[in-house]
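Entry type: protein chain
Record version: 2
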Amino acid sequence: MQRRILLSIIGTVLVVAMVLGIPLSIAGWIVVEDSAREDMNSRLKAVSGELVRQEEPVGVVREGALDLTRFRRAVPANGVLTVTYPVPGGGEHTSSLTGDDATDGVGARPLTETVGLGNAGSLTLSVASDEVRRRQWITVATVFGAVLVSILVGTGIGVATARRLAVPMQRLAGRAEKLAGGDFRSSWEHYGITELDSVSQALEDASKEIRMRLAREREITGQVSHQLRSRLTAIGLRLDELSMHADSSVVAEAEAAQQQVERLTAELDELVSVIRTTDALAKEPVGVRVPIEALVADFAPLFARMGRTLRLQISGSPAAWIAPSRLRESLTVLIDNALKHGGGDVTVDVSDLHDSSMMRISVSDQGPGIPDEIASMIFAPGFSGGASSGLGLTLARTLVESDGGRLEVTSRRPPTFTIVVPTGPGPETPRRASSEPR
């Protein structure tokens, strides 16, 4: 923005400078020469008056009787005066008077002015053009110097104006980006520019309204979740009583229902977790090694009971610009899916993307893979290839994207889910890849 404003101002100054500078230079060149010729004409007029005074009553000057010394003051130092006058007997005589600096002539292309005196002859004054050309070039240089100064002044004004406009706009855009990322608490600046202040005030009002609505929604969500947990707890207690029934079929149904209640309770917790963590923005890069190692350690016994292995491949102490709670929740969903729906050993691989400020966390297993017919729907809300509610992957993707990352299936066979998260502040949100993985 600042660069565009600066270029537009400089471009305008250059156009104005060229439009004015070139004509002024040409006009100055012509004016200097015209001034020189006017001076020559005035000198010739003075000479003509003196020549008339030296004529005899018959209107001619006797040959050899012309006093050229009387013309000395009218001849410039770098000029040559040529006087042609009639003499008795009908002929003409020519006399020349050379200026002090014109002993070697007036050059190949002198400035020449001639005044005709009718029957009294003519006067010709030639002046070396070097001095006139020097004054002409000085005039042109002065004009272009003034143009250059105006360009420099315009550039300075352009820089100040561009900074005056661009910096507040950049700061406002940065604050708006924070608002888009869920930061509704930071203050909004006013910049002394009416239009920007109006936009800032409108965004501030919008952020306050959004913050109030989110607070109300979280309050309602908390109340609803509390009521649902109470009801689910009551249902669970009744099912526990039924699990002690003498009829084995009743016990089986009670246990199946109890599993559904537990699953519903877990998914309710996930929903509440998403709502409560939406405003917990990542403020700085956090190390991911410790939380991922702890999560793998929690799941490892579950895999061991099934004769499977959960491995972690990570080097160094990588850090990501992501809220730890969201990373933990999303990875929990992926590892749990690999436990329930995958097969063979599971590998969690953490690595940096080359030539990018992003980190990749992949979860892969050795199962049969994702069927082609459901590959494009696995992130759709409510879709499930098994007996679950189908909200796990949807919630996981939402959690990752809230910190500027993405969650995709990067391979169908073997099944591989990949989380890509930024390693620095203000990342540009990665675009989703095609919904059709390999």
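Comment: Residues 2-132 form one domain.
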